[in-house]
Write a structure and sequence with these properties.
Blueprint lengths: L2 E5 L4 H13 L4 E6 L19 E5 L5 H10 L4 E4 L6 H6 L2 H22 L10 E7 L24 H20 L3 E6 L1 E3 L8 H11 L3 E4 L5 E6 H14 L5 E4 L4 E3 H18 L2 H5 L15 E4 L14 H7 L7 H14 L1 H4 L5
Parallel strand pairs: 1-2, 1-4, 2-3, 4-5, 5-6, 6-10, 7-9, 8-12
Antiparallel strand pairs: 9-11
Amino acid sequence: MKKLLVTGGAGFIGANFVHYWLKTHPADRVVVLDALTYAGNIETLRPLMDNPNFRFVKGNICNSELVEMLLRDEQIDTLVHFAAESHVDRSITGPDAFIETNIIGTHSLLKAARAVWLADPANPLPHRFHHVSTDEVYGTLELTDPAFTESTAYAPNSPYSASKAASDHLVRAYHHTYGLQVTTSNCSNNYGYFHFPEKLIPLCLTNILDNKALPIYGDGKQIRDWLFVEDHCSGIELVLNKGVIGETYNIGGVNEWQNIDIVHLICELVDGEFAADNSLASRYPLSPCAKGESAKSLITYVTDRAGHDRRYAVGTEKIQSELGYQPQETFQTGIAKTIKWYLANESWWRPLKK
């Protein structure tokens, strides 16, 4: 039986992980620590509130005393660190919050973990500090470049990716300097349930329903490797259960798409949903799909953002060969599930739309 502290567990990936973990490990104890900033939504965790093995604590990861208290009182043996500022556009206009949360916050957690788990150097407590990072720390790829591997040199190009790179290095340093038992995973772009509507896929989907523009940066030919969030959760589970202490594992979807092609696919799938379900036209009368028009009419090209990396792709050979990881969803199956979820859960995403 594990006792987990999940930071950022009310955010997109963290909340999916909490739901996944309690579903697949119902006897384990899960404590969520989240400051409930703009991207943290307590409603995502509402269905778990009556579960006796679940606890939610509102608090900031920069509060080392609070983290120490939770580690001791709950006898935590596994810390899974999702909490982060993660939106690149926001990091360009306001980088300070990214430095505070992603660097100082991670260091605060590491200090607390060291104080509790390594207090007696002769008898350290069994533990794991798992750090969730991003493929953006590796920089950008040309079209013909091989995918990033765990040995790719770091070359972050935005304040967001630079702050995540710094946090990765701190986690590594606490392992090599103090003996903290750590693992790190660097994931590709996630999508799926509970995704905050400012991100590309939920933004396009909900904008189609509201008859708002689908903004495409530059020529829309930026390439990303897309990972269904539940496949990410299963990858982290493998790292926690079978990963080697001190190692880093890339978790990807093996699924590269240009942004413009993703938007076209979303439009086609939403068009199909409206054609198959007449009730959608009455629920979303503003949508062009309600009038029999294609959602593609909303596509609008806008000026590319500063420092926009052209391509990311992570190689998954290490986690596949060593831990047996294999993503279960193709992009077509995962995006279809995602669209159906958003259509069925307007009460979740509607309050988040500006």
